[in-house]
């Protein structure tokens, strides 16, 4: 019999400082944006910012510590540490090993996690779910018994704060403990059973999101708020100087860069059609599939729009909560629409935290166990600025025992992951 896999003990860490849209409007006029524009076009109202002395490892460790506490697991019981991150301080050593070391030593001077291996997983914003999927496979195979998975990014440090894409990102960390065996008991919050995983990468357009080098830890947005810069060409050089982050030339600079239109097309056109059916089928949730779709391998294979809508409506009946990577509310809403999932079943947290990269889905899942999600859908305006569609309040109830949650993440390298879990 196949081993059952359980996700027990979620932890998060949010830096104390936050940067809201009003501060960006007032303190970064060179971005030529406003608090209203940011909230109406992205759904983001603020983002958290790590201290200068905090790395992805530092905040990841704090999330991991909470995860172990909630899981009722000691560091000595961990067999493997996976750190999902895109903002490593070093090329090597792996940040996962530094988190392992952060749990300290025992009375004999040995690492408390002395039984554990450690490695990093880098798959853009998909990294945390990718790491959970990998960990689940290793646990099912019997190579490990208990794995700590951490997702942490100091994303505000990798961006060019003269580029309007910077407004999307925030810093955060999440972590969980995965184990094989019977259902865990005695926990404060219910565990999740991991039912299935789907991973895919289409690297044909992988340059749409890229970063050519490691971080410069001095790139703190609070250092830039209120600076006086002359608008026009050369604003990046004014901000950073010539040697701040390698070359400052467009084709050579080492900041995070993104072709937003290409990413949008990929995420909206590919992600809802490849993985949606497959992961629910692998979870054993499609036994009553309508006869006409029994031999369909993927939603992408259904070319007729009406038939595709019918299939997606059927699949949506299997999903009690949809937890996507909180990237941009416009994109999240369109993906949910493509999947025929009502917004009232889509749990997001980007309004409070922004796009937190690898930490995003874990943050939402953590909160979904504790409280409802409340956000405002996007306001749509015409060319004159008049409101065409007024934003409305969306409330998403927290997870209940037995509920099926569909998790999805997508990111750099045109990589995406689906995971289905059952609560409790």
What features would you describe in this structure?
This protein is an alpha+beta fold and 424 residues long. It is 27% helix and 22% strand. The protein is built from 13 helices and 17 strands. The chain has a nine-stranded mixed β-sheet, with helices on both faces. Helix 1 packs across helix 2. The protein starts with a strand and ends with a strand.
Short précis:
The protein is of the alpha+beta class and 424 residues long.
Shape: globular
What is the CATH level 1 assignment of the largest domain?
Answer: Alpha Beta
The name CATH uses for the topology of the largest domain is Peroxisomal Thiolase, Chain A, domain 1
How would you write the strand order of the largest sheet? Answer: 5-4-6-7-1-8-17-16-11
Number of domains: 2
Total strands: the figure is 17
Mean pLDDT: 92
Instruction: Give the radius of gyration.
Output: 21 Å
Number of helices: 13
Strand content: 15-25%
CATH architecture of the largest domain: 3-Layer(aba) Sandwich
Give the CATH superfamily of the largest domain.
Thiolase/Chalcone synthase
Keywords:
27% helix; Peroxisomal Thiolase, Chain A, domain 1; nine-stranded mixed sheet; 13 helices; two-stranded antiparallel sheet; 424 residues; alpha+beta; 2 domains
SSE map:
Layout: E1 5-13, E2 17-20, H1 21-27, H2 35-42, E3 46-49, H3 56-71, E4 80-84, H4 95-102, E5 117-121, H5 127-140, E6 146-154, E7 171-180, E8 192-201, E9 209-210, H6 221-224, H7 235-240, E10 257-258, H8 260-269, H9 276-282, H10 305-316, E11 321-324, H11 329-338, H12 350-353, H13 360-368, E12 373-376, E13 380-381, E14 387-389, E15 393-396, E16 404-411, E17 415-423
Parallel strand pairs: 4-5, 4-6, 11-16
Antiparallel strand pairs: 1-7, 1-8, 2-3, 6-7, 8-17, 9-10, 12-15, 13-14, 16-17
Helix pairs in contact: 1-2, 3-4, 8-11
